[in-house]
Amino acid sequence: MSDPTTAIAYEVVIGLEVHVQLLTDSKMFCACPTIFGAPPNTQTCPVCLGLPGSLPVINRKAVELGLRTAVALGCRVHAASQFHRKNYYYPDLPKNYQITQYEYKIHPPLGTTGSLEVTAGGAASSIGIRRVHLEEDTGKLVHVEQQGQIVHSLIDFNRSGVPLMEVVTEPDLRSPDQARLFLGRLRSLLQTIGVSSGRMEEGSLRCDANVSLRRPGADLGIRTEVKNMNSLRSVERALAFEAQRQEQLLERGQPVAQETRHWDERRGVTFSSRTKEEAQDYRYFPEPDLVPITVDEKWIEEIHVSLPELPDARRQRYASTYGLSPYDAGLVTSSMPLAMFFEETVRRFPQAKTVANWLAGDVAAHLNAEGIEIEETPLTPNYLAELLRLVDAGTISIRTAKEILPEMLRTGASAEQLVADRGLAQISDAATIRGVIDQIIAEHPGPASDFRTGKTQALTFLVGQVMKKTRGRANPELVNKLLREKLG
């Protein structure tokens, strides 16, 4: 089976619907708090529970955050936009309709026709933003399982009514990898402008994807919607699987069903959930209890002025000011917390390339393995700078630094304290190392003789034995130099 991202026969077409919980203190249409992790059903009122007679009131802060996003994405911001009712029945939707915005010409959403650039495979592409609109979140279903079977479900309405913003792309993405990179770029932008925490593990950033295949240059194919992707890695894996599944169907001459499918992270597959609804199935109509949102030019200009340095500009600054490669500059700006961590570390250890290499290498490897972000670790910029200073001064070897870094990431321990407590300081005393070299040569006369007769690879073995004898603490450059002197 060919790789669907590179196959000539079919082109993958992907559009994303990104749901973003906004950083507000209260919900979209009521004064209930939005604290994550509160006990179930403790942050509710008649409005967010949909009780008869309750009336919604628009949260101005949520509108402002939506405007910040639309402006940052270069969208056309509409002078007047309208909320609508999206009608459907589901247990987590107490009113049996969701207050949202839809793409009508006479009642437009907050912003339309923007773009965000993403680079994948060395090629930059401008991904169109179809719309940015506001809505309320639903409640959360908690499924109780016994022996692998769901026996009953509970509903937590704390999330019901939380301000939600949806960013909908055009079907401009052409590979699962490009979709993952785009979502990472969007998350970084949202964090930078203070709109969302972007924590997918908490549900503050959720992504649905529409996936279809087509012959190159042909009309769009039948699409499926993929849900339940809870990390950037999940997005790439789920879309790769779904693209391959559709390719297999088409190669067998079978049709692709227009349906909603869920991603099963544990099994690594998508499975059918329900047939895909069309817009008319939701029976949209303007929300009668809310007036339109009016946005004047002054408000838009205030938003423009208040925006901080955006990720694209930050990447360019890191490349020009610090001399970072495009890859490293992209990685350290992949999230706002990581960019701040980088800058704080460089202030304390002004070797930007070294800091970026450690963040892009060992630190990133640990974060990926644990499925966490830099802000979720107790490691501080001060302690990472301290570790790098120890390496730079020759106090510890790079090998030792790599060994203690995971503990620093897990516990927040000081590098200096770990080195002192465990006696890990690098041995750079020539007399001490010469004594160890004498022991090694006595124990391994064969390799020593081989080196003297021109077999230079024998030196690598002897250096390794010295490092082993000193538990990796000997200065390897000095060991190499003294061994060559000793063996003539």
Quick tags:
3 domains; disordered N terminus; 21% strand; alpha+beta; 16 strands; 488 residues; three-stranded antiparallel sheet; single chain; Arc Repressor Mutant, subunit A; nine-stranded mixed sheet
How would you explain this protein's 3D organization?
The protein is an alpha+beta fold and 488 residues long. The protein has three domains: 11-301, no CATH class; 309-422, no CATH class; 430-486, Arc Repressor Mutant, subunit A. It has 15 helices and 16 strands. Mean pLDDT is 90; it is low at 1-7.
Radius of gyration: 28 Å
Largest sheet: 9 strands, mixed
Subunit organisation of the chains: single chain
> What is the residue-mean pLDDT, rounded to a whole number?
90
Total domain units:
3
| Separation of the first and last Cα atoms | 59 Å
The proportion of strand residues reads: 15-25%
Structural class: alpha+beta
Counted beta strands: 16
Helical run tally: 15
Helicity level? 25-40%
**Order of strands across the widest beta sheet?**
2-6-7-10-1-11-12-13-14
> Based on CA inertia axes, which overall geometry fits?
elongated
Unreliable runs: 1-7
